[in-house]
């Protein structure tokens, strides 16, 4: 149950922040946001605030922000349609009723002659007295059809009506907010757990190792190797790994007292290469540093950003196979294992996943945010947008291929973890 809760919280937070980026920049650009959804599939819970419906959906495999103009949601009234209109005090239509299911007093019935609900916002038609009337439609009017109400979206409030920089930032903001979330997660770890100092302090000396035989003990601080100052653990590791079989003079501090040891690193195979080791383990000391926590958050975000790109490059060049990929099942099982090491390890895992989600979404693949951004770049180069039908077909094919990949990856996860 703890794993289920951890998975829901982590996955929900990643999706929420991703969609929050889209949502905030869409609102900033003046785009009408029809729905902010966490999850996919059937709706579990829905609350309407202002002009946006906020929903939680059954399948925890993503989310979306549905903006006016993206889903071909324009409403067209054809000549001959019979409709009902509710007017406000200015004589403008505040509600357009296409199929009357409710009884409204003072409703105006019209047979449509001509209408524009996108730009000019008017409906011209014949009333019950066969008189031709021209009714202005309010910008915030509601269209009711079969009892379902939809807020009218004037063209200037649709996604496509906005200039290229606003559309680009609205789409880019999703992955960008995943990077921001990772930064805050790693910063919170630094504030709560402390910022690693990376001092070359020996946390544990293994039995029968060269370090133990020379007299080194837990808690020793290495200050010099072969007369060279050592200030970080990485410097210590580099000196030892490059000196297999060569005696090294170590200077350490123990309870404030300087000591000297001569240790010869043994040859060991690590990550398919032979290196020198002396048999010591490391756990970085930490210190509470408020401002240092922000620097730590930035360093960890940049580190994982580079690391995921490196692994992605290995996948592209064939150094990894598709079996190395994981879907929701694999992420769930890994979350189960990571949770055993404590809340801070779980938080680090969430930060890494957030960066991974941001990078994956920025890949220039159809149906992903990166694919849409690619079309915006093409629009900037061509000086005009790509035909919507052609772009839609590319995204449709991309969605099908991504769903096929998801099925394959999920099946591999099920085989790996359960069979």
Automatic annotation (TrEMBL):
This is Zinc metalloprotease. Keywords: Hydrolase, Membrane, Metal-binding, Metalloprotease, Protease, Transmembrane, Transmembrane helix, Zinc. PANTHER family: MEMBRANE METALLOPROTEASE ARASP2, CHLOROPLASTIC-RELATED, REGULATOR OF SIGMA-E PROTEASE RSEP. GO terms for cellular component: membrane. GO terms for molecular function: metal ion binding; metalloendopeptidase activity. It is a multi-pass membrane protein. The lineage of its organism: Bacteria, Bacillati, Bacillota, Bacilli, Bacillales. The chain crosses the membrane at residues 6-25, 171-192, 308-326, 338-357, 393-411. It comes from Planococcus rifietoensis.
